[in-house]
Prior knowledge:
CATH architecture: 3-Layer(aba) Sandwich
CATH class: Alpha Beta
Largest sheet: 5 strands, parallel
Number of helices: 11
Shape: globular
Strand content: 5-15%
Mean pLDDT: 95
Strand order of the largest sheet: 1-3-2-4-5
Number of domains: 1
Order of helices and strands: EHEHEHEHEHHHHHHH
Amino acid sequence: MTLHRAAELTYPELAVLAPNAIALLPIGSTEAHGPHLPLATDVLIAEAVCARVAERLASRKLEAVVFPPLCYGLTEFARGFAGTVGVGAAEVTATVREACLAISRAGFRKIAAVNHHLEPAHFRAVREGVKAAQALGAPACCPDHRRAPWAAMLGEEFTHGGAHAGLYETSLVLAAAPAQVRDSIRENLPPVEVDLSAAIKQGATDFHSAGGPQAYFGHPGLASASEGARLLDVLADATLAALDDLDAASR
């Protein structure tokens, strides 16, 4: 299978592919993910999911094109940590809307905005951008693996631990880009047993006030590449289901 990356194609090559292809738009953030994961963690995960989805689509005899990722998002909780770069919700929504519309104008049959930065306000802004593009005719969807049945398949930490730079995300990066994980640091990190989602509901406004002074929650030391590969399969399935739902909605 050839993985088509839009950034590596010429415009005539893209024009030939687009009418019979599905566009995948990875979305992440540039923010602190503990002392052991890179600032691009969410982007690396989103791109790995897109690559896995492209493989699944190829098995259905369908082409996919992966577009360059959107690397900046709403990152209020990681503010104050070196290297975190955040933009406002309105900017996220507008960028997602305009990207989906531009991709649609190229002639793609379907578009999936594959977001893996889970800060609630950011995910809302992404979804609003996709909805706005849909309203203007773009055949776009925004897979949401936080919902049933996918969330339960992603593990206890995902549903109750906040899933920020712990076992969940660290496993995914170990599967997607193992050289990017600082293993000598990861292996010595103590668990941070905080339910980040619950802390947010109780009023926490950043990682410090939520109880994560090193910008991670959960247990990175338990992460593994094999678990990351399993998680990538679940996330790919969630994305494919959203694309299938897009077909059903258009009938």
